[in-house]
Amino acid sequence: MEAAKELHVLAVDDSNIDRKLIEKLLKVSSFKVTVVDSGSRALEYLRLDDDTCSSRFDDLKVNLIITDYSMPGMTGYELLKKIKNSSTLKEIPVVIMSSENILTRIDRCLEEGAEDYLLKPVKLSDVTRLKDTILNTKNRLPRSCHMNASMSPPVSPAPKLC
Amino acid sequence: MSSVLQLQRQFIDYTTSLHNEGYLDNQFTELQKLQDESNPDFVTEVVSMYFEDSDKLLNNLTTALQQRNVDYKQVDAHAHQFKGSSSSIGAKRVTNVCAHFKGFCEAKNLDGCLRCLQQVKQEYIFFRNKLEALFRLEQQILQAGGSVPMVE
User: ipTM for the complex?
Assistant: First the structure.
C-alpha cells in the first residue's frame, strides 16, 4: 500500500566539514538524513524516536547509523557499544568512519557489531553500498564467515572480513 | 578580453597543474561531482568552511605551542583535526604536512612541532591562494556566459 519509503540515516560527526560532506553524499544517494555532532546527541535523537510512539512516527525510524570514530566525549566506538547493548536499538546497523587504517581498531569495531568500517574521506561509492548493508541486515541469515556480534557471540579472534 | 574558450582552457590547464603538483587530489574531484544545479555553490561553500576552520585551527596550534608547558596531546588533537578537514577537501600537500605533527608530539619535540607549524602555514597559504585563483577563473567563465568544464 505504501510506496517504498526513503531509508533514513543518522550521521554522527564532530567535524562540521565532514558533516556537510556526509549529508550531501547521503542525500545525493537518496537517503533521508539526520546529522548530529556527537554521540550523546545521537542517543538523544534515537531515544526520543523510541519514547514517542514510534509506530505513529514511522518516518522517523532510523535505518542505519553512520558515525565517525574519533570524537571528543563519546567516541564512535563507545556509541556503537551503547547501541548494541540496547535492547531497543541493537538491531539498527552501525557503520564506522575513520581516517585511520588501523587493523586492531577495525577488528574491534567489527567484533562489537559494526556492519562496516569506511576509511575517510568517504566516497560516493562507499555510500551507495550502504543501501545493501541495510537490506542485508533486514534479511539477515546466519553467515558462515563474517562474524557479527548481534547474531552470535564471537568464539575466536575476529576473522578478516570476507 | 579572453574568450570563453580561452578561459575554459586556462581553467582546465590550471586544474590539471594543481593535481599534477599535488595541491589537489581525487577528493576534490569527488566534491565537484556532488555539485549540481540544486546546489551550484557546494564546492565553494565547503571550501569557505574549510578556510574559516583552518584559520581557527592554525591560531589554536600557534597558541598551544606558545604555552610555557606545552600540552602535546592538545597540539596533536588540533593537528589531527586539521589533517582530517584538509583530507576531506582534497588538500593533499597540507594533509601530508599535518601528518608529521604526530611523531613530534609523541616525542614532545617542541622544535619539531614549531617547524611543522611553519610548514603547515606555508602550505596552507599556497593552497588557499591557488584555490582562490581557481574560483576567480570559474567566476570569469560564468560571467562570460560559459560553463565550468569538469576536469576528470
Answer: 0.91
In angstroms, the CA A137 to CA A144 distance is: 15
The pTM assigned to this predicted structure is 0.86
Grid cell digits, residue A26: 547521503
What burial letters (b/e) apply to A107-134, b meaning 16+ CB within 10 Å?
Answer: bbbbebbbbbbbebbbbeebbeebbebb
Residue with cell 561509492: A125
Element (H, E) at A68: strand A64-68
Which residue, B89, B101, B110, B105, is CA-closest to B28? B89
Q: Which of A101, A96, A104 lies closest to A71, judged by CA? A: A96
Least CB-CB distance to A24: which of B34, B50, B53?
Answer: B34
C-alpha cell at B19: 593535481
Query: How many CB atoms are located within 10 Å of the residue A104 CB?
Result: 7
State residue A10 phi and psi, 5-degree precision: -100, 115
Cis-peptide, bond into residue A121, ω within 30° of zero: yes
Determine whether the interchain pair B80/A70 forms a contact, defined as Cβ–Cβ distance below 8 Å: yes
Residues of A with CB under 8 A from a CB of B: 15-18, 20-21, 24-25, 28, 70, 99, 120-121, 123-124
Taking each continuous run of H as one helix and of E as one strand, the counts in chain B are 7, 0
Q: Which three cell numbers stand for residue B117?
A: 607549524
Q: How far apart are the first and last CA of chain B?
A: 27
Q: What is the DSSP string of B86-116?
A: HHHHTBHHHHHHHTTHHHHHHTT-HHHHHHH
Q: What SS3 state is found at A45?
A: helix
DSSP annotation of A37 reads S
> 3-state class of A136 per DSSP?
helix
Q: pLDDT tens digits for A52-75?
A: 555 445 667 899 999 999 999 999
